[in-house]
Records
---
Amino acid sequence: MELKPVIGIEVHSQLNTKSKIFCGCKVSYEDEPNKNVCPICLGHPGVLPVLNKKALELALKVAIALNCEIDRITHFSRKNYFYPDLPKGYQISQFTGAIGRNGYIEIENKKIRIRRVHIEEETAKIFHIGDYVYLDFNRCGIPLIEIVTEPDISTGDEAVSYLKKLQGILRFLDASYADMEKGMMRCEPNISISVDGKMGTKTEIKNLNSFRAVKLGIDYEIERQKNIILKGGRIEQVTMLWDEEKRETRPMRWKETASDYRYFPEPDLPPLIIKDEMIEKIKKEIPELPEEKKKRYINIGVREYEAEIISQDLKLTKYFEGILNLYNEPSEVSKWLVSEILSFKDYEKISFKDVVLIIKSVKENKISRLNAKEILRDVYETGKEAEIIMKEKGFEKRWGEEELKEIIKNTIEKNKKEFERLKNGEEKLVGFFVGEIMKQTKGKADPKIVNKIIREYAGFDKG
C-alpha cells in the first residue's frame, strides 16, 4: 500500500491599506477596541459597500507577481455563515471569479501551483476571557487577500518553504506586512493521504499563525491519517484546530463545503472590470522580488547559501545593499552579515560605516576575527562607534609580521625545551606558542599569521 501525503494551503493576509475594504474606517492595529467602526463594517441594514481601489491594486500586484492569469471581469459574492465575528451574517468575498488564476511559486526546484488569488473582507477579532466572549470590530472589514494553492505540497517542510517565499513576496511588494504572530497572515493547510494513487478525504487545520505550527501541525496530521488508514479506519472531512500545548490536532467542526455557505452574487457591488491599462501600470510598479535578488547576488559573487538568506528578507536586503554602497565586496560582506551580524536581534543598530571598518580591519590584519566579534558586540551594546571602541581597547595597533617575528623569537628563547619538542614533531605545541603570543599582544595579533610564523620556524612549512 502506497501512502502519499497531498497538501494544499489557503493563506489569508491583510492588505496594507489606510482604510477598510468597503468603507472609510481607519485601519489601525493599536487603537482601543471598537473605535474604528461605522454602520457599513458593523453590518447595519440598508448600508452600501464601496470597493477600496488601493486594495484592488495591491491584490492585482500580488497576482501578477505570482505569475497568475488575470481575470478581466470578476464578481463579488456573499458567503453566508453565522458566527459572532461576522456582524452581517455573511462575508463579502469572491467565488465565481478571482483576481488571478493559474500562477505558481518555485521552491527548491519544485513548482507550487497557485489555483486562485482573490480579495475579501476580514472578520472581527474574538477574545475569550473567563466565561465571556468579547468582540473587537476594529479588524472587521480590513481587506484580505486569499491565496489558494493546488495540492502540490508533500511535507511540513515544503509547506514552510512555500510560505516563507510567499511572505517575502508580499513584503517586497509592500502589499502586506504578513506578520504571522500578529495574525496578519494566517494559514490553513488541507491535508489528505493518497492511497495507491487514489485521492483521500481531506481535513483542514484552521488558522495556523507560525511556521513552527504549520510544520508540526501538518506532520502530525499526516501521521494521524496514515495510522487510521493502516488500521482500516476511515478519514472524516473535519476542520481541525492545532493544540500547541499538546502538540496535536483536534476536531473543531465538520468541514463545510461551498454549498454550505450558500454563495450568491453580492447585489450591492457591480462586476469588477480590470482593464489592460491598469495591469500594465501595476506591472511597472513591481520591484525586484526575492528570487530576482538572489540571482543577482549570486552573479556578483555571493555564495548561494548567503544569497538565499539575505534575499528573502526585505529589511536585510536593504541593510546588505546599504553596506555595499560603502564597501563593494559582496562576498565578504554577505559572509559577515550571515555569520556574525545576524546574531544580533536589532542588527540595524550597527551602522554601515562601523560594519565596513570592522571588515576592513580584519582583512588588513589590524585586528583578529575574535577582536572583530568583541568590537561588534560593544558597538551593539553601547552605541559607540567602532573606531572609538578600537582606540579605547588599543585595537588600532597593527601587528605586522616583522614585529610578530621579534616577539615570537623572544618567546621561543624563553621556552627552548617546548620548542625542541615542537621541532621533533609534537605539533600540538603550536597551540601553546600561539597562546603565549596572543597573551603578549593582548589578543591583538592575527592568530593565523602567528601560527604560520611558528610553523615556519619549527620547519613544518619548508619545502
---
Amino acid sequence: MAAKDLYQVLGLGRSATQEEIKKAYRRLARRHHPDVNPGNKDAEERFKEISRAHDILSDPEKRKLYDEFGEQGVAAGFDATRARAQSQRYEWQQGTAGPFAGGFGRYENLEDVFGDLFGGAARPGPQVGQDLETTAEIGLLDAIRGVSTQLTIERPEPCAACAGSGYAAGSEAVCPECQGRGRVQLGRGPIAFGRTCARCGGAGRVGVRPCTTCNGTRQTKRHERLSVHIPAGVDTGSRVRVAGKGIPGSGGAAPGDLYILVHVRPHPLLERRDSDLYLDVPVTVGEASLGGTISVPTPDGQVRVRVPAGSQSGKLLRIRGHGVPALKGGSRGDLYVRLMVQVPSDSSETVRQAIQTVEAAYGKDLRSGLQL
C-alpha cells in the first residue's frame, strides 16, 4: 500500500506555513485523540498518522528532505548527498542526460550495455533496515519526570531454518532460466553477449519447495522485550526514537530504528496546558480571608505557598519552575495553584453564629450589580 501524502494527512497544501501546520495538527489531534475515541482502532491509527505527519513537517530539515525525496527522504540512514548523485547517474544511464541522451538502441539502459560486455548483472547492494513503530502509555507524572519502562515488540528477522532463502533445504533444482549455466545469452551471431542470470544470481540452481517454517517469506517474527527510557517533557503524540531497534538491514547494512508513539493518561488532580500545570487546592474561609501559609503538593514534592489575605475562590497563585520541563531543552513551565474556598459543612449553633458574623461583614448585596 502506497504511503499517504503527509500534507494530505493534515489537509494542507505543500505551501503551508509552519503556523498552518501547527493549527491543523492541533485541530485533528483533538478530534482523533484516543481519549475522545476510546476503543476506536480507526481513530487510533488516524491519530498516529497525524502525529507522524506533524513530527516531519514541523521540522524544517525533515520537511525539506520529504519534499525532495518523499518517504525515502525521512527513512533512517538516508543519505541525501548520495541520493542526489544516484539520481544524476540514473538520468545518465536512462539516456535522458550524458553521452547516451539519444537512447541505447536495443538495450533498455546503460547497465544492459555493460552487462552484455562484462557479464555483470545489477545486484541490490546493502539495504538499511526499515523503522518500526509501537505505542507506550504513561501517566502524567511520568511524562513530567521521565520514566524507564518495559516494552515488548514484534520484529521480523531472517528465517533461521532456510537461512533467509525462503526455500526448504535440499529442494534445489536446475534454474529454468539459464538451464544451470548461471548465465544467459543476449543477441545472436558474432555480436552475442552473455550476462549473469538474474533469477539464480549465477548459481545455476533455484529452490522449488518453500520453507515450511516461514512459508517462503524468508522471515520469521520474534518477540523482544526492551527497556526504554521516555524522557521528561513528552506529551501525547510525542515520538521517542530508539536507535537500531528496527528491522535488521540486509547485506550487513545497519538496522532501522524503533519509534515509540507516546500517549499520556490524564491525572485526576493535575491539568496540563502546554508546559504549565494547574492544581485546585482547597482552603478554609479563614485562610482565604486572613491569609496564611499552606503546603501544596508538586511533582517535585511539597512546597510552602503564601496565601494573600482577602483571596477569593478561583485566585491563581504561581509557583515558578514546577511545571513540565521542555523536551528539547529550555526553561521549565510553572505550576498554578487555584484556590478553592471551602465553607464548613458543620451546621452547629456555634458555626451558624460565626457565619452570621462573617455575613454581616459584607455590608452589601454582592449580586446587586449582576445583570445580563
